[in-house]
Design goal:
Length: 436
């Protein structure tokens, strides 16, 4: 563990009070942003392409299209046929994958630095020349539908989707990233192609390279592979923000499950808002660790819940502060809910001890630093910060977090965690139908 900590410290520039990622920024004439972080500790490199597109860029009728297109990005171009992207990366001992969220879609690989240009070639090729073969679309549609079914059949799967659908009425955060089943079944090749041409363009993407790569030499290769790709029209803006919530929203879902569950959501500001970090600290105080307020009271002392978490889900547009709990057998969601409100009412500046605040901030700091334990994770940090705001705020994060006060935490709890701003969804166990 000590050796690992020292390696992380050296590669990240973490030395007690200091934290700095020496990220170099470049931009091609076609608008492609390139961010490079050199780290020559091991002969590996991660190549990541982050697109500014997610489910927030969809509309009713094509929900889930960003995720569906992510699957199709591995299904071939005229140069590299179906599956060859993954096969070539793996041939040289590399790994690769992708993900889609509300705000972004990212593709990433880790491979020997000697094969950096292979990854650049593959990513540039599928940015501009995706086949979208009808048979591949048909096959992959079934894969996505199965993912959708697995979520629907999970004991608490519908809870999170209903929570989002109740909390948001106008904004595209209303639907899940995977989309609704009826849309997955109906999305056409023409719609996939239009989505691809709209968002998979150099001026809507950021190329991130972290690891054993010389920035100047790497940029020569980047220009060779990406420089000729045409710039596209600026993608359309997302519809106006979600209107203020005027009262509590509530739903109860009967499910064939052994334990009840409870989920709450409160509207909060954007990732780049001044209240974002106090909300993150609030989440730490409420539920991080066995001495946190919600865990100590509901799980350990009163044994009302088997688990509980509180989290500020910060996004490009206003997100949600969520509290999720699994209810102890023999207890009810109403008992857990009442206990949560008791704890929220006690989050005042006077009630937060100096040690409690210090612990919460230190937990957030250590979580941030130790999430950077690989070049892939460093790339994820750069990409997510840059899509949500800017990579430049990474080096400000620790200092800004340390400036959060008890007054800040109490203020955001008082401002956002209100009844009229609240959505509550409960999972209630139901008896399975009798056989025969």
């Amino acid at each position: 563990m000590l050796a690992t900590s020292l390696i992380i410290g050296c590669s990240l520039g973490w030395a007690g009070e200091a934290f700095h990622l020496n990220i170099q920024e470049f931009r091609l004439d076609n608008g492609l942003e390139v961010l490079i972080l050199e780290d020559h500790a091991v002969p590996l490199v991660t190549v990541q392409v982050w697109y500014r597109v997610g489910s927030r860029n969809e509309r009713p009728g094509i929900t889930g299209i960003s995720h569906f297109l992510e699957h199709m990005m591995f299904k071939g171009t005229p140069k590299y046929g179906p599956g060859l992207y993954s096969q070539l990366i793996q041939r040289y001992g590399g790994t690769q994958n992708a993900f889609t969220s509300y705000d972004m879609t990212a593709y990433y690989s880790v491979l020997p630095s000697a094969r950096l240009e292979l990854a650049l070639d593959l990513e540039a090729d599928r940015m501009a020349h995706l086949l979208l073969d009808a048979n591949e679309i048909k096959a992959e549609r079934e894969v996505v539908k199965e993912e959708r079914r697995l979520r629907e059949n999970a004991p608490t799967g519908p809870m999170y989707e209903v929570l989002g659908a109740l909390a948001y009425k106008a904004h595209p955060y209303h639907w899940p990233t995977i989309g609704w089943m009826s849309d997955i079944e109906a999305i056409t090749r023409e719609e996939l192609l239009a989505h691809y041409k709209t968002y998979y363009i150099p001026n809507n993407a950021t190329l991130i390279i972290v690891g054993d790569a010389d920035a100047n030499q790497t940029m020569e290769a980047v220009r060779r592979y990406f420089g000729a790709l045409p710039q596209g029209p600026t993608p359309p803006p997302v519809r106006p923000p979600e209107p203020p919530q005027l009262g509590e929203h509530r739903a109860e879902i009967p499910r064939p499950t052994a334990l009840a569950a409870l989920a709450m959501a409160y509207h909060i500001p954007t990732f780049d808002h001044a209240d974002a970090l106090p909300l993150e600290v609030l989440g730490q105080i409420l539920s991080q660790g066995q001495s946190s307020r919600l865990y100590r009271d509901l799980v350990y002392e009163r044994q009302l819940a088997t688990s509980i978490s509180a989290n500020a889900d910060l996004r490009i547009d206003p997100g949600l502060f969520t509290i999720v709990s699994m209810v102890q057998s023999g207890k009810t969601p109403a008992e857990v809910e009442a206990a949560i409100y008791e704890q929220l009412e006690q989050v005042t500046a006077e009630s937060i001890a100096d040690r409690e605040l210090e612990k919460a901030i230190n937990q957030a700091l250590s979580g941030f630093v130790f999430r950077q334990d690989s070049i892939q994770q460093q790339g994820f940090t750069i990409g997510s910060f840059h899509i949500l705001q800017s990579y430049k705020v990474i080096n400000e994060y620790i200092d800004r977090l340390r400036r959060v006060t008890k007054q800040d935490v109490a203020r955001v709890a008082r401002t956002y965690l209100t009844k009229t701003n609240r959505t509550v969804v409960t999972i209630v166990p139901m008896s399975p139908p009798k056989a025969g």
